[in-house]
């Protein structure tokens, strides 16, 4: 028992034993610095240093941007920004789908198919083949002949769908040609535009700024040209004698795009058949244009 007490006193006494740490010049043995230390002081110093490092590391992790580089310590604002970006990406995807549906409906109008009301994922995923790669048959030849006889856009109208009048009235229309209207807008009899008689070789002008989406010829209506405008508007000009613009051209309102004529089997003389479509539905041009 006495030995244990003696050892404890010896241990505590050694903690307070004084030592000197001397820094000397290696060549001259001149004393540069000296420190008087004890084991207890050294223990206190390194203990304090360890506590300081722990506190400093915790502060850096909790209150500085460095925590973002540590897994599991992502900044809340970063997660908020990521969430906003995801919402924007979803919104852009919806907008792109709507644009794809819009352009698909324009192609449907041009090619004589029904207008789709909802976007179909199969529209973009379907495979297309070159005509030469398809097997030819008697039925195929008949189908080709029928498709070539169809006009380049669909004369289809739904009684349930009505255009938004506000979007159209905000546009300033330029009359495509000055003349006498001989046939009016009559959807009940499949006449979705106006027939305007004018002088021979009269210039046909664009009614609004827009882009040419088709410039071609069909058996029934001859030389046709169609323009895509803002506010989901499409204007169509039929029975021309000459087309002055090609697909993809951008034209200004009042710019000459064709010359009046009487091309096509359905023409009864020199005139312009003018149509105006909004959201895939034909509208009466007289409601918005003064001829």
What order do the helices and strands come in, and which of them pair?
Layout: H1 2-15, E1 18-24, E2 31-38, H2 39-63, H3 76-111, H4 122-125, H5 138-149, H6 165-169, E3 180-183, E4 193-197, E5 203-205, E6 210-218, E7 222-228, E8 233-243, E9 250-251, E10 256-260, E11 271-278, E12 281-283
Descriptive overview:
- This protein is an alpha+beta fold and 291 residues long.
- The chain folds into 3 domains: 11-65, no CATH class; 77-116, no CATH class; 167-287, Distorted Sandwich (Glucose Permease (Domain IIA)), CATH 2.70.70.
- Helix content is 33%, strand content 25%.
- It has helices spanning 2-15, 39-63, 76-111, 122-125, 138-149, 165-169, and strands at residues 18-24, 31-38, 180-183, 193-197, 203-205, 210-218, 222-228, 233-243, 250-251, 256-260, 271-278, 281-283.
- Strands 3, 4, 5, 6, 7, 8, 9, 10, 11 and 12 form a 10-stranded antiparallel β-sheet that branches.
- Strand 11 and strand 12 (281-283) form a beta hairpin.
- The protein starts with a helix and ends in an 8-residue tail after the last strand.
- The model is unreliable at 121-131 and 151-164 (pLDDT under 50).
